[in-house]
Structure formats: C-alpha cells, structure tokens
Amino acid sequence: MDLGLTDRRALVLASSRGLGRGIAEALAAEGARVMLTGRDAATLEAVAAQINARGAGQADWMQVDLTAPDFAARTAEHVRDRFGGVDILVNNTGGPKPGAARDIDVAVLMAQAQAMVASVIDLTGRLIPGMCAQGWGRVLTVASSGVEQPIPNLALSNTLRGALAGWNKTLATEVAGEGVTCNMLLPGRIHTDRLDQLDGAVAETQGKPLDEVRAASRRAIPAKRYGRVDEFGAVGAFLCSEPAGYVTGSMVRCDGGMISSV
C-alpha cells in the first residue's frame, strides 16, 4: 500500500528514542521529511544520521525541552523555517513517575500538565491553521492504554492523558471538514526503556524479581508478548497517511488485545 507520505513534512515530538522514534522512522521509511525533537543533541544527531543513511525520507533535528516556557513558539518557528510548514504533527511526551491517585502532589500535577498537556495543545494550535489552509493535515497524539483502562499506580498519567482524549475528540470535529484528521494512538505494553522502568517499579513495590514481574505481565496480554516499537510505528505511520483520511476523532489501540473493554 502506498501511504502517500513522500515529501510530507512531519514534526515528531520526543523522537530520539522509544515510541516517538519508532513513528519517526516509519514515516521516514515512507518518504516523509521528519523533524526529530528531544533534549539530547548527540542522540538526536545520531538518530537523524541513521535515518538519512537509509535513503528513503530525510530527517532533521532540533534540541528542545517540552517543559520550557517558549517550547511551542520556538518549535513552531523552527519547523516553519526549515520545512516551510508542517503536514503531520505527532504529539508525543514522556510519562510521569508512578504513584497512587490519593498521593498526587498538586504542584507536581501542574508541572506535568504543562509538559504533557498544555505544551501539546499550544503547539498544535500554532500549527493546525496551516494544515487547514492547505486542506490536508494529520495530528496524531500518542497517549496510553490508561485512557481506556486506567493503569494501577499510574494516576498522574491516567489523569493527564485522559484530558488529552477529550481535547483530541473536540478538535477532530472542528477541523474534519478542512481535510485535517486528529487521532490518538494508545500503546499497550510496547517494549521500550519506559516499560523497563515501569516493570522495575512494580518489582520494587511488590518485592518480586523483575523476570517474574515481566512474565506475569506477558501472561496478562492475549498476544502473550510485549509489542515491538516498529509495530507501533507502523500503526502510527498509517494513521498519518493519505489512505487514513476518513479516520478521525478515534482512539486506536496497539496493545496485543490487552485492554479488556469492548
């Protein structure tokens, strides 16, 4: 299938590793021009070089911190200067530390809300007018399975990503008639450094060996395994594609059947 992504301009947040990198690599493999972002310049430069060496789409990069007050303005300006605009925006952020709902510190909540919610909404608001003006655009927001089935001991993540779900659905209805789609991609247990961190936290909390925790986690997934980053990236690339133009306002799972709701 031709995804129609050749020379499309894509900005992928938090894409030096993990899920963001997986989507960036999948878009570039389909011929897109990708702007990588993250805090580690050396890592970004290395990832861009690897993508460019493959010879399909091309990658550029910028060092930026989602928590910085000027994040959205600076990122939007940079990508316009380098690409002349954006066709695809992939909103991806890191997750907060584990913790219970009754232990949420309001100061931590507000700081995480700035990085995980406000920054995403601000940046999207700056870039989506250009998509609407040209009659084509894709906004893909990476969230978590916790949006549909809250994850124990991840109260902050469940709370903040749930806020993005309401925003995404509202935005999708506003811009669908202008050729722009807005979807959310919900990862289940995709094997990344973040997943290793969460498994380690469970092992520490329960006083169990890490291998035992991982084995139990895999047994709870119908597919009986953790997902691969490239599998997740492929789903993301499709949702950003030309053939996916009639998919909007949706929350798409990539979870091996883990989420138990219908």
From TrEMBL:
<dbReference type="InterPro" id="IPR036291">
    <property type="entry name" value="NAD(P)-bd_dom_sf"/>
</dbReference>
<dbReference type="InterPro" id="IPR050259">
    <property type="entry name" value="SDR"/>
</dbReference>
<protein>
    <submittedName>
        <fullName>3-oxoacyl-[acyl-carrier protein] reductase</fullName>
    </submittedName>
</protein>
<dbReference type="InterPro" id="IPR002347">
    <property type="entry name" value="SDR_fam"/>
</dbReference>
<comment type="similarity">
    <text>Belongs to the short-chain dehydrogenases/reductases (SDR) family.</text>
</comment>
<dbReference type="Pfam" id="PF13561">
    <property type="entry name" value="adh_short_C2"/>
</dbReference>
